[in-house]
């Protein structure tokens, strides 16, 4: 089963995906994590991605799709997959369909996490991220055990520039313009599209998420 997670920045997709994947043995596929891993390992794709990032450019869709394709090849066919952070546009979704078809899979379900903008702004301004392993914490809701330190790998957490309040509103506008059309796009596909409210406490959202995907 392949499930795509959609929702605006700060809605908690990554947190919910990690909890579900760890619990039921599914594979959580985050394109951000794939990029970081490829760069650390110094793979050919990682070096290509680094060149774009060093130049201040976005990593092209074709390169992201290559990273996803390589990763999916190593996942057992019986394992469920949660795709988090990709696709972001209909063009990426079309490319992803081809990648999945090549490994004998398809998008089975799309889960859309929803929350009001004002709640998302509050969440994002409190978010702290690990630059090494990609773990995400929140000073308001899910703080690390030791302030400023990642629970997973012990690296120093950072307050990313795009998580600061002055940039959040623009990120939400970009999501509305580029990613929200995916909901309509997948609504015309064979995939089941389900909305989950992300306003409730983390455990309650997880329960609704599990219900949506049959776990």
Write the layout of secondary structure elements.
Elements: E1 2-6, H1 13-24, E2 27-30, H2 31-41, H3 44-54, H4 61-73, E3 81-84, H5 90-102, E4 109-114, H6 117-125, E5 127-129, E6 136-138, H7 165-178, H8 180-187, E7 192-197, H9 202-213
What does the radius of gyration come to? 17 Å
CATH superfamily: P-loop containing nucleotide triphosphate hydrolases
Q: How would a crystallographer describe the biggest sheet?
A: 5 strands, parallel
First-last Cα distance: 12 Å
Q: Look at the structure and give the CATH class.
A: Alpha Beta
How would you characterize this protein structure?
- This protein is an alpha/beta fold and 215 residues long.
- The chain has one domain (2-213): P-loop containing nucleotide triphosphate hydrolases (Rossmann fold), CATH 3.40.50.300.
- The chain contains nine helices and seven strands.
- It has helices spanning 13-24, 31-41, 44-54, 61-73, 90-102, 117-125, 165-178, 180-187, 202-213; strands at 2-6, 27-30, 81-84, 109-114, 127-129, 136-138, 192-197.
- Strands 2-3-1-4-7 form a five-stranded parallel beta sheet, with helices on both faces. Strands 5-6 form a two-stranded antiparallel sheet.
- α2 (31-41) packs across α3 and α4 packs parallel to α5.
- The longest helix is centred in the C-terminal third of the chain and has 14 residues, at 165-178.
- The protein is globular, with a radius of gyration of 17 Å.
- The mean pLDDT is 90.
């Amino acid at each position: 089963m392949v499930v795509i997670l959609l929702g605006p920045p700060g809605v908690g997709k990554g947190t919910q995906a990690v909890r579900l994947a760890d619990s039921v043995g599914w594979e959580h596929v985050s394109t951000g994590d794939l990029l970081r891993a490829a760069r650390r390992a110094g793979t050919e794709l990682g070096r290509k991605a680094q060149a774009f990032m060093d130049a201040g450019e976005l990593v092209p869709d074709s390169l992201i799709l290559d990273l996803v394709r390589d990763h999916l090849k190593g996942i057992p066919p019986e394992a469920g997959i949660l795709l988090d952070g990709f696709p972001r546009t209909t063009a990426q979704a079309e490319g992803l369909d081809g990648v999945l078809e090549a490994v004998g899979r398809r998008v089975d379900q799309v889960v859309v996490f929803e929350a009001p903008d004002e709640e998302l702004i509050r969440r994002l301004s409190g978010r702290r991220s690990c630059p090494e392993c990609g773990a995400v914490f929140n000073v308001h809701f899910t703080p690390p055990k030791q302030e400023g330190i990642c629970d997973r790998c012990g690296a120093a957490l950072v307050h990313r520039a795009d998580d600061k309040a002055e940039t959040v509103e623009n990120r939400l506008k970009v999501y509305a313009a580029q990613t929200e059309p995916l909901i309509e796009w997948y609504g015309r596909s064979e995939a089941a599209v389900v909305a989950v409210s992300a306003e409730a406490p983390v455990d309650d959202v997880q329960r609704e998420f599990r219900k949506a995907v049959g776990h």
